[in-house]
Amino acid sequence: MLTLYRPGTGWLHRMPAGPKLLLILSVVLVVSLLPAHWSTAAIAALVAIVGYTVSGLGPGLRGIRELGHQMFSLRWIMVITLVSQLIFMGPEPAVANTARVTAAIVLAALLSLTTRVTALLDAIERGLRPLERLGLDAARCALLLTVTISTIPVLGRRAAEVRDAQRARGARNNPQTFVIPFLIVALKHADELGDALTARGVR
Amino acid sequence: MSAPAIRLKDVGVRLGEVDVLQNLSLDLQARTVAVIGENGSGKSTFARLLGGLINRTSGELSIMGIDPARRAAELRRRIAIVFSNPDAQIIMPTVAEDVAFSLRADRLPPAELTQRVGAAMERFGLTELAQRPSHDLSGGQKQLLALCGAMVRNPELVIADEPTAYLDARNARRVAEHLLEDAGHRLVLVTHDLALAARCEQVVLFAGGALVGLGEPEEIISQYEAVLAC
Ligand SMILES: Nc1ncnc2c1ncn2[C@@H]1O[C@H](COP(=O)(O)OP(=O)(O)O)[C@@H](O)[C@H]1O
Ligand SMILES: [Mg+2]
After folding, report:
1. What are the residue boundaries of the structural domains of chain A, listed by start?
2. Cα dihedral sign, B88-A73-A71-A62
3. Is residue B1 part of a domain?
4. Global pTM value
5. CB of B86 closer than 6 angstroms to any ligand 1 atom
6. What is its main location (chain A) (predicted)?
7. Chain B interface, mutation test: which of A111, A192, A200, A203, most B Cβ atoms within 10 Å?
């Protein structure tokens, strides 16, 4: 689900990271605010398809294939959203909400697909700089976001290791026995990461 | 290299309720220094002290003429620290971006940044992997990346705390060669690999938070082996 940058030369790739962030954010916002109607499902799907077709991800059907790829990685989120809402809210809101959420996520993914994290980090830092007069440290905030993003895959792998270790000792999948070891592992990672950041020149 | 690069006088470090290092006095003159000792003997604490990650509780400390407690920022610009676990040292999502991250604070012009990053990746054999997701690399490649990220800043002193602990023999050797190679840096290397310690010019031996040996590798390593044999 955590999409990575794909090198490319389309217009969205070439667009400066700051304006691109604002553009994609506003499209995502509009899609998320659509009402829970049948028509919303159609509009959300259309916006996602158009977004992936016109953003210059590559020749021919490259954009649509990428969209398929993204949707495939979201399949469980889609199923869970759809089923839980079908049970509690009925078909129309369930379909509209699922379409809306899925479209928002895949549209947001266009940002990470076409922008290097370094460029994003620079843009966020620049964008936050006016707030420095209010005492905000722009460089630190931008860095915090970056580190958060990059920590997710590491913690995901650590969680799998903890589960494996427990299974190896015959424990069933049990959230209660999972939480404490995972917390310890996560805190240890945070500790090490703090040292590494300091060592690499971050104040 | 006239005045000792690293000088400690009666240094003590207390963490919580524990005196982790006590009455530590030593001058380190050699370009490459190995630090050995059993688990819990205080090696990592010593490395973190030299790296300015923790402060002493008492005594005096000077690293290349700098007192870390007073001028920590300057010290960090001139040294690099390498840890055992590569996962915790890699920050950016691709290899090239992670190397460039170490130079972020310098605000270099883009052309110079690209050049420095390219040269460093070349040196560590990472050029082919430049655009690869850094968290998908093998353990050995990750540690080379961590080392590359440390070395790209041309540090005067490199402090490495068991940098080969998680690596297989081949990758451990590659990492060790890069650390020992004279690229204009001094090295303080914490290690359990006595063959590696023997390749340093000077060896420091810790036991129970105190310095128990300092001198030629051969002498200090046999002193340590004698203790281990008991
Ligand atoms: N933050 C801390 N608080 C209290 N005790 C600590 C702390 N860090 C390390 N120690 C203790 O200090 C001793 C030396 O630890 P360390 O320097 O990590 O040893 P080594 O790296 O040689 O294995 C150990 O007994 C350890 O338990
Ligand atoms: Mg240690």
Report:
1. 11-199
2. positive
3. no
4. 0.82
5. no
6. membrane
7. A200
